[in-house]
Amino acid sequence: MNLFTKPMRLLTAVVLQQRSDQVVKALLQLGVLDFIHISRLEADQLAKLSSKPSTTNRVVLEDLRGRVEALLKQGHLALPGESTLDVSLLAEPQVDAYRAVLDELTQTLLALKERQKVANQALLGVEEMRRYLAESKWQYLDLRVGSVKEGKSEQLEEKLSPYGAFVEPIDEEFVTVLSLRRDLAQIDPLLDKFGWTEESDPLLQKQAVVLVRTRLETEHQKLIDKRGEIEQSVKRAIAERKEELHAIWSNLRLNELSDQIKSYFSYTRNTTLFSGWVPADQAESVRNAIVEASGGQCVVEWTEATEVPRESVPVAVTSPKVLEPFQNMVNNYATPEYGTVNPTIFVMIAYLSMFGLMFGDVGQGLVLLLVGLFGSRSYRRNPEKKEGLLTRNVTNLLVYLGLSSMLFGALFGSYFGLPLLPPLWFNFEAAVEGHAPATALVRDVYGILGITIRFGIIIIYTGLVLNWVNLFRKKSFVPMLLDKNGVVGGVLFGTGIYMAFGFVGSSYRSFPSDPWIIPTLVICLILLFAKPYVQHFVDLKQGRADKTFGQVAAGSIMEFLVDVLEIFTGYLSNTLSFMRVAGLGIAHASLMGTFKYLQSMVGGVAGVLIFIAGNLLVIVLEGLSAGIQSLRLNYYEFFSRYFTGRGIAYRPVGLKRSSSDNR
After folding, report:
1. Least packed by Cβ within 10 Å: which of 5, 529, 567, 620?
2. Has residue 204 got a pLDDT over 50?
């Protein structure tokens, strides 16, 4: 894992046109080049370049590939992963031939689907009759006993089958007919054509009911078997073409990627030019691949990231697979700026600490851990499984949240809300309820609030230090020293913390009167006011000033007032915002205390059920609240101190996602 974003280098290469296809294959195989359009040449040089119209329509290729994927899913077959692609098999796509194969298979499946539709409709009708018969709802059924004078009973059943009716022989003379009453308008005319004669013998009526029940069960099983056979036929039809479908999918995908790369190429009469960003540790591999693929007939040049504007450099961050849930949190917010700190590890520590403080319980944490482990295992065993409420990322995150909850639960001595073992730190519930012993480290809710405020101060200062590191690496020394999030802002924040704790320590009677406080505040405010002037002087020396001194002076007062307001109110609100950590922790303990009290009141099995239901409710509601609040505090209180989010994500084109492409 890199503490900072990965160093990047900009490649610009020229190869002979006749070797460009081989170069495309080599770059596809590596999959580490984030292509950009050639734009750094002079205007007269750019005028000499041209682009070639693509010989393939990428939209058509994507449409065909989508059809292949839909067929494979219909056959419950795994999709071929991009990691299985072989560049050596890249060939001109035979679009018409591919379409013919897919159309033929689709027609076969449509015929099977039509049979399946008919079977399903028949099955629904049988199930409806079975239900009415089981519930004795004869008002919806029509059961007749009689004889057919014209034609045969088999012919009658054939005519009645579209309406889901059954004709069952009772003896050599009489038959019974079962249908739904709503279909009588169609069934009566058919019975008349066959010369139907009704029979009212009660014994025959009873015998008819028994026969009909047996026939319905038999037909129900037959239709279920028939539906299963059709489903198997669908799977077989697709499985028989599996290798062909995989080959089509692979070539379509290879051509899509190849065409994507070629869209960045520019051409002269005999050469091909292209450019793109590569992680510095992959630069030599890319160069060697281009040289080998072009037979040495190429020119490769490198530009360091320091020579171009920072905001145009794509950002690649590498984090271990185990940190993926926290990397996703960063990615969901924004992309870090190039050359700055990779915040993943800091987000993990802050997030898990916040969650544990709000949801510390060994037993409930164990439930989260088990849900996460079983969910992750299910997704690993079924890669094509459709994601539900608990997505892959959520199940992975639940493992960490469960461990965090268990750790803090042991510190607080809470096991499904019960003090089964002594706490390693302090009894959270006893502090909330006000009966903690006098020797306890934390005896009341004020102590809990104090812990979370101190924790918030640590988080905010961590953000400030990371901001100073980022600004130092960017050589932005003036903001690093004089900005509201710079050293001056940090000193003012520290002074405010000292005064606040002194005020609390005096029982809210007076602020500290140390002689250094006033001079520190005055010096910091002067430096804060001087920041735009110092920055203007530095910009003038470096030849990049975009404002006159008058414009700087006109805006400096307003900027100073906004910065002072932000420091004295923003820092205060950010710090006090961490009291929500204590609030949710107190609510968690209070809820468990309430359910324990209800259990003791009710007692017995009912009391145990109440206690179990209470734990489940707390796990779902409190766990969700703690997760959301932890994320909010990271985004708004932590990120706001150092994370600019102005980066461009590194997106290389290749057969598979590069190890450094963690989007």
Report:
1. 620
2. yes
Tokens 């730190």 sit on residue: 425
Shortest CA distance to 341 belongs to which of 570, 571, 629, 647?
A: 647
**162 residue type, one letter:** P
Which range is least confidently modeled, 77-91, 139-153, 475-489, 638-652? Answer: 77-91
Residue 48 has pLDDT above 70, yes or no: no
- 215 CB contacts (<8 Å, ≥6 apart)? 166, 168, 178
Residue with tokens 């992309």: 335
Residue 33 has a pLDDT of 94
Question: Cα–Cα distance between 488 and 147 in angstroms, integer?
Answer: 104
**CA-based nearest residue to 583, from 616, 632, 617, 636:** 632
Average pLDDT, the chain: 90
Closest CA to 574 of 447, 433, 452: 452
Contact 404, 365 (CB under 8 A): yes
Q: Is 180 helix (H, G, I), strand (E, B) or coil?
A: strand
CA angle, 146 then 149 then 151, to 5°: 115
Tokens describing residue 467? 């901001």
Report pLDDT for 663. 37
**What is the length of the chain?**
663
Residue 333 in contact with residue 639, Cβ under 8 Å?
yes
User: How crowded is residue 141: how many other Cβ atoms within 10 Å of its Cβ?
Assistant: 16
The H or E element spanning position 14 is strand 8-16
